[in-house]
Specification:
370 residues; 3 domains; five-stranded mixed sheet
Length: 370
């Protein structure tokens, strides 16, 4: 009764306090990206959102905070912040220079529990590198073996000079043996510009499995730049990755079967037919669907009353997409602890210890008498 009263009290207290908890804040958009040019003057707008009655301080931070003008330094419950940047003629550090617009909620003077919001928006200023400089990103999608795979090499010219970018795509199998070496062509890329080079590869002669793709771009720099990604080629196959192994005698047991799809498309109406070998016991699980390359669990139930052996086998057959695959697995009953035996052994050991103590005391008394 006492525990029930305490539980009711804490639930009542929770619902009282929850009315005082405030935790709704954010900003839109989260960031802007701008290319640097000497003396750049540009305006940006951010919309901040906070809880009712929230008092918010607004300020700029980051490497270029001294070149920022805000239309306001405080907000009530959020609002619009206009940001004007007036960049210098030269910025020493090439690459991404960040300007952060921070909105920080002041501590509440009222009672209750308040989660003080701190929201940060960002302006990325991309400062070009002197001379020739580029960065790349490789996108390597999964596919099914035999399909055409379209790789994408994103080349971003971050330097001050125009570059001539020669792209090469290499593909390796899991043993690091070269499967393809493709000259993907040349692109002329101006400063502050980017190119997406598409490289199509036929996988008719590829086996299902995991592969590695490496994109190399030579643009006249010190050495070619590269990016590498793994990708998978699938086959219409669902594997059994794990399953329940131990069960309890003389009752209805649950059996979980963990499965994984190796197919790059959805697998529909997947279910398992389970038959216990040498017994007239079988069951069928409800059907499920699997997303590409995903895992899930099939669950079924069976009665162990008629099973006498400690160890037994089951044949699990997965049925899906007009295909099936089977696996024979080893099962057993739980090794239950025989507490009675341990109690008997404990009593015997205790009696032996008492006997040893008694013998020791008798010998000691005889010595004293002598």
């Amino acid at each position: 009764m006492k525990k029930r009263v305490i539980a009711v009290f804490f639930i009542f207290l929770f619902f009282i306090l929850i009315n005082f908890v405030q935790a709704s804040f954010g900003v839109s958009p989260g960031k802007y990206v701008v290319d640097f040019s000497p003396g750049l003057n540009q305006n940006f707008t951010f919309k901040f959102k906070f809880d009712r009655g929230a008092e918010v301080d607004v300020f700029a931070s980051g490497e270029l905070k001294d070149y920022v003008i805000l239309n306001t330094n405080e907000l009530i419950e959020g609002g619009i912040v206009e940001v004007e940047i007036n960049l210098p003629q030269h910025i020493e550090t090439p690459g991404i220079n960040n300007i952060y617009i921070e909105a920080k909620q002041r501590p509440s003077s009222q009672g209750g529990i308040t989660l003080a919001g701190h929201v940060i928006a960002r302006i990325e200023v991309k400062v070009p590198y002197p001379g020739k400089y580029a960065e790349i990103k490789l996108i390597a999608p999964n596919a099914n073996a035999g399909e055409l795979v379209n790789f994408t090499v994103l080349i971003d010219n971050l330097g001050t000079d125009t570059i001539l970018a020669q792209t090469t795509l290499k593909i390796f199998d899991y043993q690091n043996i070269t499967k393809d070496d493709i000259n993907a062509g040349v692109d002329v890329i101006n400063p502050k510009s980017s190119v997406a080079r598409i490289v199509s590869v036929s996988t008719e002669k590829y086996k299902p499995g995991t592969y590695k793709a490496i994109a190399l771009v030579d643009f006249g720099g010190i050495e070619p730049i590269k990016d590498e990604k793994q990708f998978r080629l699938g086959e219409l196959l669902v594997n059994i990755t794990n399953h329940s192994r131990e069960f309890v005698r003389n009752k209805i047991n649950k059996m979980d079967i963990e499965v994984e799809s190796l197919w790059n498309d959805p697998v529909y109406n997947l279910y398992a037919q389970v038959s216990l070998i040498n017994y007239d016991i079988s069951f069928v699980t409800p059907s499920i669907s699997l997303y590409p390359w995903s895992k899930n669990t099939l669950t079924g139930f069976f009665d162990t009353t008629d099973i006498k052996e400690n160890k037994f086998k089951a044949n699990i057959t997965l049925v899906y997409n007009e295909k099936s695959s089977s696996k024979i697995v080893n099962l057993s009953f739980d090794k239950t602890v025989n507490y009675t035996l341990y109690i008997v052994i404990g009593i015997i050991l205790l009696i032996l210890i008492l006997l040893i103590v008694i013998v020791f005391l008798i010998i000691k008394l005889k010595k004293k008498r002598k």
